[in-house]
Amino acid sequence: MFKKLLVSSLALLVLTACGTTAKDSKEDKVIKVASHMEPMTTVVTIAGEVLAKDGYTVELVPVSDNAAANIALNNKEIDANFFQHVPFMTMFNAANNGTLVGVQPIYDAIVGFYSKTVSDIKDLPTDAKIAIPNDQVNQARALMMLEAAGLINLNGKTHDATLKDVAATSYQFIEVDLLTLTQAYDEVDLVYNYPTYIKALGLTPKQDALILETSGSTHYAISLVAREDNKDSEKINKLKEAMTSKEVKDFLTNEENSKTLAPAF
Predict the structure, then answer these.
(1) How far apart (Å, rounded) are the C-alpha atoms in residues 13 and 215?
(2) What is the pTM assigned to this prediction?
(3) Residue 262, exposed/middle/buried by CB under 10 A (0-12, 13-18, 19+)?
(4) Confidence at residue 27, expressed as pLDDT on a 0 to 100 scale
(5) At the fourth CATH level, which superfamily is domain 112-212?
(6) Residues of CATH 3.40.190.10 domain(s) within the chain?
(7) What is the CATH number that goes with domain 30-109+218-263?
(8) CA-based, 20 to 30 A from 135: which of 33, 57, 68, 177?
(9) Model confidence over 182-219: pLDDT tens digits?
(10) Angle at 144 between CA 139 and CA 145, to 5 degrees
C-alpha cells in the first residue's frame, strides 16, 4: 500500500511539474505592450506578426492616456510601452520614483506649429495667442522651435526651457495639455502639435505647418520603453529586434507615413 501511495505521489509530482513548466513556458512567450494611438499601435502589431514566427505573442494593451501607460509599466502590469520619447519618460520617472528605461528609438514624429488665422508665419500678429504643451519636456521643445524661427529668445536655455525663460515678448502663451492641443487650433493664432493628433483635422506637417522642427536629432524620437529590471530580458530583446525589423521600417517609410515621420533606426 505504501509503495502504491509513493508511486502515485511521485507521478502526481511529475505531472504537476510538467504542467507548471508548460504553463510558464507559454506565459514567457507573451509580451504585453501598452500603446494607444496610430501609428504606434500598428508598429506594435507588425512587430507581433514578426515575433509570431518565433512563437511569441505580442499583446497590445489599450490604455486611456500617456500616464496610464507609464503607470502600468512601472507597476509591472505590462512588459513595455510605446508612445513617448525618452525626455517625457524621464519626467515621469522623476515625478513617480519610476524605473522606466528607453530601449530603442523607433521614429521621429515631425512636429510643427499650425495656424487657422494666417498662412505665413511672417503674418503672425505681434500679440498672437500661441498654444504650447503644459508639460515641461514638450514645452521646451516647442519653445526651442519658436526661437529657431526667430519669434522668441530663451536667454540661452534649451531642453530645460519653460515660459519663465522667454525674454520679454508681446505674444500671449496658452499652456494646454498635450492631448487637447488639437482642440486649441480653433481658439488661437498658432498651435504646436504632433502629427498623430493634428491628423484629426486633416493637417500634415510638411504640407500645413508654418514652423517645422529642424534639429535632425533623435533626442525626441518615439521609443520602445521597458523597465530597469527587464530591459535586458529575452522578451525585450526580441521585441526590440522586431520593432527595428524591415517590416516595421517599410511601414514607417510608406508613402503616407513619410509625410509625418522618419525612422530613427
Answers:
(1) 62
(2) 0.80
(3) middle
(4) 59
(5) Periplasmic binding protein-like II (3.40.190.10)
(6) 30-109+218-263, 112-212
(7) 3.40.190.10
(8) 33
(9) 999 999 999 999 998 999 999 999 999 999 998 777 89
(10) 100
